[in-house]
Design brief:
Length: 348
């Protein structure tokens, strides 16, 4: 058990410790954060595969006092180092994907180019490999009694994690904070695209009973029709609809109470940072104007816990690395801190 008698939570963080400057080992930590350095299918800006290192550095400047969850951190948070083999595989396949995307976007016929056919096959096989790797890592940690959070990487990285949690918890719901629906059957012929992750989750995990989506504001007709045909499982709160309700006098509390009522007993929070106003995440892969403030989401998450519902896991994805990556990482580190505290607080 970690001895905290000599640890001062008010002092400057020691970078020789782990995430947030906390002095916990993986063995002693209640919550283990698993970084997944993968961004093979991103369709706009890259960089999120290296977000974990930047967030680790930024986490040293996050104050440890959370007025809503004052003691959660004392149960221990630990982040594993990003797996270099996964990162190298992502880098290799990303180069293949860039060539492939450029090729098909110019209207070329895929079947006429054997190299591009081979690249597509390797990318889709890589997605299957990544799903299996994440599932196995998460499953091992869950079997050891750990709470597990995922730090992306692009949004495709969470599917194996969802499956591991489904095996442990049975029926559950996902609260997805995102500018996009991620409900395409495939995108650019990538089976495990970041734009298809929720479609794949609903298809492959029958115990995922509810998908409540918050903040979507950039989606295609195929996704709209999928939502209309699956109203028993998919409950959208589009950014436009939320704002129009507020323009007409409804409060965020009233909307929050309604959202909470749509969630089942067990909830997984899937937080794509592009669900926020892009001023908070300018280097995210696919930014879209509009979106939430962080305090709106934190208020909602607090109300979910107060309702008696249980968080079974969380992920934070699509944090970009760009010219001003310190800001993106700073915001990401503060969100990760809040998510970690809430996850532990929800599992006394």
């Amino acid at each position: 058990m970690t001895d905290l008698s000599q640890f001062d939570p008010n002092a400057a963080s020691n970078p020789n410790n782990n995430i947030f400057g906390l002095p916990f080992s993986e063995e002693d930590a209640r919550l283990v954060i698993l970084p997944v350095p993968w961004e093979v299918t991103v369709s706009y800006n890259a960089g999120t595969s290296r977000a974990a290192d930047h967030i680790f550095k930024a986490s040293m400047h996050v104050d440890l006092f959370d007025p809503d969850n004052k003691e959660s951190w004392k149960q221990g948070f630990f982040m594993r180092p990003p797996d270099k083999k996964v990162l190298l595989k992502s880098d290799y396949l990303r180069k293949e994907a860039e060539l492939y995307i450029d090729y098909i976007c110019h209207g070329e016929v895929l079947e006429k180019n054997l190299f591009m056919c081979k690249s597509l096959r390797e990318i889709n096989e890589g997605g299957g490999y990544l799903n299996k790797w994440v599932y196995e890592q998460a499953k091992q940690l869950l079997n050891r009694g750990k709470l597990v959070a995922i730090l992306g990487g692009d949004h495709s990285v969470v599917l194996g994690y969802f499956k591991a949690l489904a095996e442990q918890h049975g029926e559950f719901g996902v609260l997805q904070i995102d500018a996009h629906c991620d409900l395409r059957a495939s995108y650019e012929l990538f089976t495990y695209s970041h734009a298809s992750v929720m479609y794949n989750a609903l298809k492959e995990i029958p115990t995922l009973t509810h998908l409540v989506q918050l903040g979507a504001r950039d989606y295609c007709q195929e996704e709209w029709e999928y939502i209309q045909n699956n109203k028993d499982r998919v409950i959208p709160y589009f950014d436009k609809d939320i704002k129009e309700r507020q323009f007409e006098g409804e409060t965020w509390k009233q909307i929050t109470d309604e959202i909470v009522s749509k969630l089942p007993e067990k909830v997984l929070v899937s937080f794509d940072i592009d669900g926020l106003d892009p001023k908070l995440c300018p280097n995210t892969g696919t930014p879209v104007q509009g979106g939430f403030e962080t305090e709106q989401i934190f208020y909602l998450l607090k109300k979910i816990v107060q309702s008696g519902r249980k968080f079974i896991g969380c992920d934070l994805v699509e944090i970009g690395v760009g010219d001003n990556n310190e800001w993106d990482a700073n915001v990401g580190a503060h969100i990760l801190w809040k998510l970690a505290n809430l996850l532990v607080a929800s599992n006394p």
